[in-house]
Amino acid sequence: MSKMEMPERIAALPRDEKGRPVPWFVHWEDGIPDFRVIEAGKIVTAVRDGRCWVCGQKLGRCLAFVIGPMCAVNRVSSEPPSHRDCAVFSAQACPFLSTPRMHRNEKDLPPENAYRKGAGIPLDRNPGVALVWMTLSFKPFKTEGGVLFDLGPPLETLWYCQGRPATRAEIMHSIETGLPALLELANVDGPEAVKDLELKTNKALELVPK
């Protein structure tokens, strides 16, 4: 798929006032989509009914997760899977995922009962690199604030930066600048957690293109 080729399933989504397709999971407030916010109940529906997180249509056997490099270390996603082409388009076209210096706008969010906050302990940074993780399996598990997803072994990994395939240097920079936050959390849990993080980091590094 070329850089900005839009999958048919995404082209069929409703549009905002600028003509941009609005992902299935997005919360609408007074007829206006808020791309920062997950609609309440969408995670449950996606997992229960096997729906693509981006387009809302039925998934096939192969599952694609759009994650950051630190999630590749933990093999955990905060969002359910998508179709491969929907995930690749998202990694290329989503402004937050494709623009390393962009930060999320937290101003004037809707009431908390109207949407779902992210589960777990998110890292407050833009990783600059997005990873499409293809797998055949995942497992939801409960955690602080909701549900996260353990990722199955990768069939394919595709790295993107600024809407194009990421270079090894860009991927390594993102990993190296993100690891201190994970190490800080591991140090709180003790030496075994630190050792486990080292093992997971080495496995993640095996997925970085040569």
Task: Output the keywords.
210 residues; 7 helices; single chain; 33% helix; 4-stranded antiparallel β-sheet; globular; 3-stranded antiparallel β-sheet; alpha+beta; 10 strands
If helices are DSSP runs of H or I spanning 4 or more residues, what is the number of helices? 7
Poorly predicted segments: 98-105, 113-118
Helix content: 25-40%
Question: What is the molecular shape?
Answer: globular
Q: How many structural domains in the coordinates?
A: 1
**What's the number of extended β-strand segments?**
10
The biggest beta sheet is recorded as: 4 strands, antiparallel
- Beta-strand content: 15-25%
Taking all Cα atoms into account, the compactness measure Rg is 17 Å
Please, what is the average pLDDT? 87
3D architecture notes:
With 210 residues, the protein is α+β, with helices and mostly antiparallel strands. It has one domain. The protein is built from seven helices and ten strands. The chain has helices spanning 8-11, 42-49, 69-74, 84-93, 95-98, 168-189, 191-205, and strands spanning 26-29, 32-39, 63-67, 76-77, 115-116, 130-135, 138-143, 146-151, 156-161, 164-165. The chain has a four-stranded antiparallel beta sheet. β9 (156-161) and β10 form a beta hairpin.
